[in-house]
Predict the 3D structure of the following.
Amino acid sequence: MSWSPYDLNGGTCIAIGGEGYCIVAASTRLSTGFSILTADKSMILPVNSKCLIASAGFDGDRSQLHKVLTFRSENYEHFHKKPMSCPAMAQMLGNTLYYKRFFPYYTFNLCAGLDDQGLGCVYTYDAIGSHERVGYSCQGSGKDLVQPVLDNQLKAPSILELPPKVAVTSLSKDEAIETVKIAFSAASERDIYTGDAVEIFVMTPEHGVQKEILPLRRD
Amino acid sequence: MSGVGSGYDLSVTTFSPEGRVFQVEYAGKATDNGVPCVGVCCKDGAILAVEKPEETKMMLPQSNRRIFTVSRHCGMAVPGKLPDGRQIVSRAHQEAEQYKRFYGETIPTKVLCDRLANFCHVFSLYWSLRPLGSAALTASFDDQGPHIYLSETNGVSYRYYGIAVGKGRQGIKTELERLKLGEMTTREALKVVCKCLMRQRDESSNKKYEIELAWISEETGREFQRVPEDLAKQTVEDAKKEIEQEDSDSDMEA
Amino acid sequence: MIPHCQLPSHIATGPHVSPFVSSPSHAGRAEDLHVPSSGSSAPFSVAPSADHAEASAGAEPRKHTTYPYVTGNSVLAIKYKDGVLMAADMLGAYGSTKRYKSVQRILRVNDTTIVGASGEISDFQYISNLLDELMTQDFCYDDGCTMTPKEVHAYLCRVMYNRRNKMDPLWNSLVVAGVDKTSGSFVGSVGMLGTSYTDSHVATSFGNHLSRPLFREFQRDDMSLEEAVSLMQEALRVLFYRDKTSINKYVLAKVESSGVAISKPFALDTKWDLKAFVNPSKHAVGSW
């Protein structure tokens, strides 16, 4: 038995970009092994009015990563006198993760928000920084359960289609929120690391960022 | 080659034929011409007091501090050049912390003050350095009781019953010598020290003064503290009244 | 393997030195010669040990803490109406040996904050020194501000995470509790990897399994001090019945806006009068 600098604290996060909205949701359970540490830990970092980051994986690295990103985004805002755009944040998150390529942040991230056209944008990452812009994505312990549901329900054009189409879902905002809620309820049935509650952030150009909390199974 | 030092006063690495190091003596003058600072050791503790003339009307009171806390059991007043003094205080912090980390006990005052004197002394050994225009007037309370030390820029460090540095120090020292400090409590001595400082004021100028007071005693739980604001204010006022009273009494006699 | 059951390697092997090895050049093949890899290569030698030669040759990497030596067990903390309550026993265990029985694992940081620790006692003493220096610096600034429990927690999170980044962890789970004049009660925890959280109640090690279910059911943020104390006593009693590396000697600490109070060591009433305990050999024929 040897010591490891990593742990897996579980949790699932989902991001969906639509026309004129963006949804980022993450469960709030923090676990280690078969124990629950707390039922109420946020995994979402509201970077600014245009961008949110949700991270699953190891909590220690997540706190550090979120601190670094907060600091850099504040710095950017001071220098540029405007909040960091979502695509800019996405690129920086990729660089930040890759900078630790040989001692990675063990976090699985989603960076989501609204782009300059007011279109929802979602970036999905692996732990060492490779990333891709997609229409929707999910990460964390429940991703194997949730991703197929999203593929099936969101009716988004496939990213394999040629010529490429904008990969945002055609669902309305309320339909998409409902899908997220169902996906989390489903994930919490089978994934022991997803439960207690889910934080849902909804971003629209009109109303900015709004937060909602949905209780989940607590067992 | 004329003047005070006759060419032997340009470097700390050159002695004069009489065996003096003028640069160090000049540095001492910076302290002597600075604000008056007093430290007295009483029955149950020690007091530090500094009298500062108001430099400008626009400056907020209490913003130009000259008394600093070094550790829980020890604090110091810095006469002379304040920036130089802060270097000494910063070094004192380091010494106190490092000693505690290494030995698990608070640093004995003698050790601290000797080390600070050594620190100052180093600045008078190299041509590339300039001696510090300040000193460390230390008040502390350790297991040996209350202490007042003065570590000077030339590298000496002595322990005192009571000591004054800066402008008007001679007058204050003479007054201190007349007192029985060892029989007073810090609370009693507070007013006496204020009176000593106030009597040495330059009567001709209409400058305003602020007196900074700090103490450490059994009463403060052997913790170095600034004297609470209302008590300090009251003490200064009482001292002022008493001086006026005494002056009018002596006028009557005359 | 359960880490507690294994003696630290240098104690298990002893400081013996092989007479067959005289020059450091053999040190690289130390294992073949059945020589312990640590210790100097010749008796009473003051020459640099073989370890240095090995490390510089890249034969064996530098080693850091890989298991704790003397450990403390559960720390419990809950919020109540006027503040927070924290409890821990006083055992310092050497593996499964109850080695030290008067170890205070709850530390008063300042007038608003306390810290409790389970895990390696020496690491906790180091952390205590860090906090003490921090508070002395706070005192020296003399600006009328002191650190809040939230700030102490944030600081400890950084310390713990920083050491795990160096692959040299401080082997503790820490609990920070206290009262902040503006934001009220605070209870938070941080582990040796930097995993941290805040909640209305926290418990480390065995307490997370045995006490937190009780807390989840009975703890309320608006409960009275009396209720909180009796809940805490019940949680400690359950722990003492079930956790073999705990002793019936506890310290209870409380923080309210009026300040910190840490109790004298005390013991709980326990009942062991189960019928099966009266004559334990009754149902085991042939045993004495």
User: Anything to note?
Assistant: The longest helix of chain A spans residues 59-80. The CA atoms of residues 145 and 187 of chain A lie 6 Å apart. Chain A touches chain C at residues 1-3, 5-7, 9, 30, 32, 35, 37-41, 58-61, 63-64, 103 (CB under 8 Å). The mean pLDDT of chain A is 95.
